[in-house]
User: Fold SET domain-containing protein from Auricularia subglabra.
Amino acid sequence: MRQLFEHVMSVNTMHDEPDAPPITVDNKINDDPCPPWEFYYTNKLFYGQNVKRGDSAKLKGCDCVGGCRPDSKTCSCLRRQHRYLRLHGESPPLQFNYDQNGRVIYLDYPIFECNDACGCDESCMNRVVQRGRQFPVEIANTRKKGWGVFAKSDIPAHSFVGVYSGELITDREAHARAALYDLVGRTYLFAIEMWYLKNIFRRRYRERHRPDTIAPDDGEPQLDDEKQSSIFVVDAFHVGNFTRFLNHCCEPNCTLVTVHINEPHLYKPYPCLFTEKDVKAGEELTFSYCGPISEEEVCLFFPCSVLLS
Ligand SMILES: C[S@@+](CC[C@H](N)C(=O)[O-])C[C@H]1O[C@@H](n2cnc3c(N)ncnc32)[C@H](O)[C@@H]1O
Assistant:
């Protein structure tokens, strides 16, 4: 059963990450051979009821040849990424949100990768998530938190770990499902928070009220105005991958970053897990279910300090 589970994980992802190292399963706690087989294993986002894929004709790409360069004067993907990095409040240099080794530069800013509409090839430095997982991980049972995910090799800080895949559902649907999951005592629901979109709405508001003073938007992916307030949630209960087993910690070693690739609709990025710090082989991979927690705050989610390990 365990080997079958490992095999299914590998077969269901072999097209989108052919070079990914295998994911293993281990259980030193009890006799269960593998986690409950209650979900379809995939790295993709499945669109739920009332959630439509964005219009692919609106996908904007660059005209670069070969790989995009951070010193390019013409790469439109570089300019788009830079627009969002400027929200940082400082003046970051013109750059992608990845360095030459494929590590994220700003973990708290969205990533706009090159996509299917771009002229650049697969070697482009701005294609990291779409190349797939590079580090081996293990799904293992823990004494007090159910199943969890452990690094099988050292993983450098700011590295891509995996896509938080699942069903993309509406906020309303998520509320209905949350009530059911509370009964089971386990939840795999995560709201995609995109604070940076608020700036776009603020600008649109100003455009409407002072149209002469604002420069026209140069090729920004479009949002439907009536959908401005909708929030999407990823539910990994029935559909997902190994990332659904990452447990919560208020001093986590991973964090979620929104990554825009082939979906032109700004509200539907891939939530992706990246390491926040260097991780040693054998360490449990965790992230904060409630976002960053300051030192003065107390984690209300789980008493992590008591329940760790
Ligand atoms: C996204 S799942 C994580 C995988 C889960 N452990 C499993 O076995 O499927 C979230 C659930 O894991 C458990 N969990 C996650 N972090 C925990 C923690 N720090 N302490 C106790 N339980 C935790 C809770 O039951 C929570 O609803």
